[in-house]
Amino acid sequence: MEKIIEIKHLSFEYEEGSKTIEDISFEIQKGSYTTILGHNGSGKSTIAKLLMGLLEKKSGDIIVGGITLTEETLSEVRNQIGIVFQNPDNQFIGATVRDDIAFGLENTCVDPALMDDIIHEYAKKVNMLEFLDHEPTKLSGGQKQRVAIAGILAMSPSIIILDESTSMLDPKGKTEINALVHQLNKDKNMTILSITHDIEEAAMSDYVILLGDGHIIDTGTPENVLMKQQQIESLSLDIPFAYKISKGLQSKGIQVNDYIDKEKLVKELCQLHSKK
């Protein structure tokens, strides 16, 4: 697969002698759904800001789409990335949803004659078409995230970074946003980088980068990383619910496989029940 992000020996510190990110290296494949997972304060959101050039690295290289991030290439790199933050209120510029989606298009010099069609297209994709003339700050949390995503999508980035973007949502809102982002990943081959401490979100990704105190602890598929119970819990994270249930059933003498996917666990339990 083609690499779209390369991080090489990256280090960063907020204060002299207190390293937040220390000599980390990883790659993200084009079209993948990758999660950087870690507890609060592990450095994961700092990585997102470094990727966007919002913070200046101490050492190492950040390469996005084959372009090494420098002061001279900052705009080229940023043009490839759209980021949705935990609190989208900080991203809203326009007085209405329509104005807010238009803002990014205006900054990228989109032909005004095409703008209205683009706004409608992406508002429809996130089920916010009927809210185009509403004030963004008066929407619900889930609706705000949808508007933020629509604004990012309208600019057609190669990469979307979700920086704890569902952490303030209720369960229904989380489910809706996660389903939307996974659909975009699948339908548009869009590279998704999710920054989160939510183990269930990490379980749905293609690849997991486990972070602890500014260091990479583990990398691999969700099945390979998230089933290491002792390692996960040592980082103040919880193991996936399906894995917890699998282990509980095994302790009761019910022979099921280990799962992190709830649907797969339910399917096996249904098959076991039908054999009785």
TrEMBL record:
Name the InterPro entries on file: AAA+_ATPase (IPR003593), ABC_transporter-like_ATP-bd (IPR003439), ABC_transporter-like_CS (IPR017871), ABC_transpr_CbiO/EcfA_su (IPR015856), ECF_ABC_transporter_ATP-bd (IPR050095), EcfA_1 (IPR030947), P-loop_NTPase (IPR027417)
Domain of life here? Bacteria
Q: Keyword annotations for this protein? A: ATP-binding, Cell membrane, Membrane, Nucleotide-binding, Translocase, Transport
Q: Which GO terms describe its molecular function?
A: ATP binding; ATP hydrolysis activity; ATPase-coupled transmembrane transporter activity
Indicate how the chain sits in the lipid bilayer: Peripheral membrane protein
- UniProt domain ABC transporter: residue ranges: 5-238
Cellular localisation: Cell membrane
Q: Which CDD domains match?
A: ABC_cobalt_CbiO_domain1
Main localization is membrane
* SMART domains (UniProt xref): AAA
Q: Which cellular component appears as one GO term in the record?
A: ATP-binding cassette (ABC) transporter complex
The record's listing under Pfam families reads: ABC_tran (PF00005)
Q: Family, per the entry? A: Belongs to the ABC transporter superfamily.
What is the protein named?
ABC transporter domain-containing protein
Taxonomic path: Bacteria, Bacillati, Bacillota, Erysipelotrichia, Erysipelotrichales
